[in-house]
Structure formats: structure tokens, C-alpha cells
Write a structure and sequence with these properties.
By secondary structure, this protein is α+β, with helices and mostly antiparallel strands. 30% of the residues lie in helices and 20% in strands. It contains 6 helices and 5 strands, in the order ααββαβαββαα. The protein is globular and about 60 Å long. It starts with 8 loop residues before the first helix and ends with a helix.
Length: 169
């Protein structure tokens, strides 16, 4: 058995192999140092300004460290006025790259009504299952309306926020 020499990047590219490199770039900070989420209310208040004047649905993922402090955020999907298609791969990609321990998923209802639809509940359950497989806890899926929000974690009794004091301390 003869060992072959590893190909250089230039050789790989010449042979038609795509070489992909990911570089993390820190954008301007949105949050203050030390912000940590103790409840769905804290998280919703944090995210509300990001959805102001949105005329279509957006799905945003906030990645958190072990102390429930935001480490990164990403708009994962942009939809229409009444729906937004979501892929599990896109939701968890940034969480994996930023070494997140948990995530909070936010999306808005441009109608102003924060009541979750049946598909919102289905997606939430699917997100939770995917997170369990990846060992990234989905703390909540929060639906934002005009003046109110709805915590799907509270409705589905996930008890995500139950142990937050021990994580923050």
C-alpha cells in the first residue's frame, strides 16, 4: 500500500473540488455585556426592536452560552405576510458554529396577533427534537405580535425557564 501525498488547495481547485472556508466576522454589538435571559419576557423584550415595522414574517435565532447570554443572532428565514418556511439545518447552523449551548427562536406575525398557528407548534416540536439530537437546547420559540408575545415553551410546558437561576448564578 502506497501513501499518496495530500493535495494542496490549488490542486484541489484545479481538479474541480470546491474549497470552502468559513470565517466568523463580528458585526457591531446589539446587546449590552452581561445581558442574560431569565424568562420568556426578558427574551421577548430583547427581540422586539428587531421586528419593528416588519411587513413580513422573519425567523430569528438567538444563540446562547451556558449562562444564557447571547453569543450570536441570525435571521434564518424571511417569509411572506402569513408564513415563513423554516429548515432545521439553517436554524442550527449558526448555533453549531458559535458553540451555543442553547437557542431561542423568535418569529413575528405581521398581522399583530401573537397567537401561534398549528404549524408554529409543529415547527416548535420539530426544533426541540432536532436540538435534542444536536445537544443544543431549544429554550423557547417566541411569537411576537404588535404589543404582546407568546411563549410556545410555556404553552407546551417545556419548563425551559425553570432552571435559569442556576445557569446564571
Amino acid at each position: 500500500m502506497v501513501k499518496e501525498k495530500a493535495q494542496s488547495v490549488e490542486e484541489l481547485e484545479h481538479n474541480g473540488v470546491s474549497v470552502i472556508r468559513t470565517i466568523a466576522v463580528r458585526e457591531k454589538s446589539y446587546w449590552n455585556e452581561g445581558v442574560c435571559f431569565r424568562s420568556a419576557w426578558d427574551a421577548a423584550e430583547f427581540a422586539k426592536p428587531l421586528f419593528e415595522n416588519a411587513d413580513k414574517e422573519y425567523l430569528l435565532v438567538c444563540c446562547l452560552d451556558g449562562k444564557l447570554q447571547p453569543v450570536s443572532m441570525e435571521v434564518v428565514a424571511m417569509g411572506m405576510v402569513n408564513q415563513c418556511l423554516v429548515g432545521m439545518r439553517e436554524v442550527f447552523k449558526n448555533a453549531i458554529l458559535s458553540n451555543a449551548v442553547s437557542i431561542i427562536v423568535f418569529h413575528n406575525h405581521p398581522s399583530g396577533d401573537c397567537r401561534p398557528s398549528s404549524s408554529d407548534f409543529q415547527i416548535s416540536k420539530k426544533l426541540r427534537q432536532a436540538g435534542e439530537l444536536l445537544d443544543i437546547e431549544v429554550l423557547d420559540h417566541i411569537v411576537l405580535g404588535d404589543e404582546e408575545f407568546h411563549s410556545i415553551a410555556n404553552t407546551l410546558e417545556w419548563e425551559s425557564w425553570k432552571d435559569t437561576k442556576s445557569k446564571i448564578a
